[in-house]
């Protein structure tokens, strides 16, 4: 029986989490996890700190990243075991950072036009690194008293289809997969439920991405129901894709999500990481 568990989807202060990379690893240790991946949005800046904390605390740390891609909904690509010193990755991340900043400025301008004045400087106060995310804008909105919570900010203004959402992204989903592969990593589509696609549409997308190097999908995730989780894992099996899994932990920005267990019943077995290591060794 599996007795070791992992969390391969977490965020730190280097993107839109509220814990430092070292504190994320310490939280994983306290939760009894055998391994954790730091997968900040569009940056690998926090990985050295996380790896050092893992060595000190006896927690296996997987270097990772979560890349946003062009989509009318949410299509994010997770990369695991990426080469953080890869020149091609470093070069592209600089461009991604600039594009993300333009996107955040778009959002702030739109909110201001809606009668909710917010500046990029307001959002940057909540950024521990040089990446500005929607979560930082949401916290600035809370500070101004526009919304009672980060969740409410997304629900009313910042999510796809809401009035202040911006579709501006630096790359397509295929480009994101290729970048991860060029950096020596394994590429996975994150939280399939957030793509808002039917199973047939997902199969078409995953087949297209597999042709450019996609390795798998996030088969275990906080928001999946038992039924959708089974459907996604069955789809992966049919397509010859492997699985990752994680909580999407953000600390106090998503206080209902706990590292390792999500909203309480998530358990990602270490065997998932074993399979990823086998795929990596091929």
Task: Describe the 3D structure.
The chain is an alpha/beta fold. The chain has a domain at 5-86 and 185-281: TIM Barrel, CATH 3.20.20. It has ten helices and eight strands. It has helices at residues 21-30, 47-57, 87-113, 120-124, 134-143, 150-158, 173-182, 199-210, 226-239, 270-281; strands spanning 5-10, 35-38, 60-69, 75-80, 186-189, 216-221, 242-246, 268-269. Strands 7-6-5-4-3-2-1-8 form an eight-stranded mixed β-sheet. The longest helix has 27 residues, at 87-113. The chain is globular. 49% of the residues are buried.
What's the quick description here?
With 282 residues, the chain is α/β, with parallel strands linked by helices.
Alpha-beta classification:
alpha/beta
Adjacency order of strands in the biggest sheet:
7-6-5-4-3-2-1-8
What is the mean pLDDT? 94
Q: Count of DSSP E strands?
A: 8
Q: What is the string of SSEs from the N terminus onward?
A: EHEHEEHHHHHEHEHEEH
First-last Cα distance: 27 Å
**Helicity range of the residues?**
40-55%
Number of helices: 10
Quaternary state, please? Answer: single chain
Based on CA atoms alone, the radius of gyration comes out at 18 Å
Low-confidence stretches: none
Residues in β-strands, percent: 15-25%
The CATH topology of the domain at 5-86 and 185-281 comes to: TIM Barrel
Largest sheet: 8 strands, mixed
CATH superfamily of the domain at 5-86 and 185-281: Metal-dependent hydrolases
CATH architecture of the domain at 5-86 and 185-281: Alpha-Beta Barrel
CATH class of the domain at 5-86 and 185-281: Alpha Beta
Shape, per Cα inertia axes: globular
